[in-house]
Structures are given as structure tokens and as C-alpha cells.
Amino acid sequence: MRKARTKLIGGALALAAALVLTAVGFAHQDGPHGFGGPPPGGPGRHGGPGGPGGLGPLAHDLNLTDAQKAQVKQITDGFEASTKSLREQLFKSGGGPLEGLSDTFDESAVRAAAQARANVQVELEVAHARMMSQIYALLTAEQKAKLAEARQQFEQRRQQPPPPPPAEDAPNLR
Question: Do residues 59 and 52 lie in contact, with contact meaning Cβ atoms separated by under 8 Å?
Fold first, then answer.
């Protein structure tokens, strides 16, 4: 039972990492503010008119209709509202590499705090997957095919090994 739970949490964290890396990749493709421009309400907010549903540049490539854009905005606004308390809870829970740093280490307290954060993260991932499923259901067959092609290309790039580091004896061009 404990092994299964550990595997589930590990898988959820791996999925979270993959989602974050995907989001970062899309954000870097679309300028310094990511997903199409500065977010509404100033820095630190999520969403934005340039990337409905967090689809980043794909939103443009899929040629969403105005009706689809409106529906996607409604779905993403609902997601933001429904997950606000979870995101706040995750932010307030802290954590990080210095957690538990004190004269006396309390492993059970650190584990409990990490487990609580993991549980919130799982709920956020489920909510995000639900949102993406709702957005996917809005797409036409042609848009779904384009998305599948983009996803395949992303996976192919992800499978490629990273480039080797520069040779140490290469001249410094600074």
C-alpha cells in the first residue's frame, strides 16, 4: 500500500515537472511575458489574452474561432477561480531546500509538510487536466490533428539528447 502511494506521488510529481517544463518552453517561445504578452492585472498573475487556455503559441497555430476563444476564456477563468484557494494554500505552505533547517531535525514534520504540498499539487494537476480536456473538446477535428502533430514534434525534440557542453580548450570569445 505504501509503495503504491509512493509511486502515485512520484508519478504525480513527475507529471507536474513535465507540465512546468512544457509551460516554460511555451513561455520562452512567446517573449518575456510568456503566453502572448503581459498578464492581466500585472505581474505574478496567470492567464492572459494572448494564450487562451495556456496553449501559448499553439492558440494562434490552431486558428481558434472567436466563439472558441470566448469559450476557452470562460473555461480558463473558471479554472483560475476554482483553483485560487489551492494555489494560495500551496504558496503559503512554503517548503524548499531549507525546510527543516534547525538545531533539531524533525523528519516527521518535514514529511507531513511535504505530503500536504504534494496532495495540493495533485489536486491542481487534476483540475488542470480537467480544464485542458474541456478545451480539447471544443476543438474541431482539424485543430485536434494540428495539436497532435505539434505534440508529436514536441515529444521528438524532448527525446533528443542535450547538446554536449563546450570544449574546455575552446577560445573564450568575450
Answer: yes
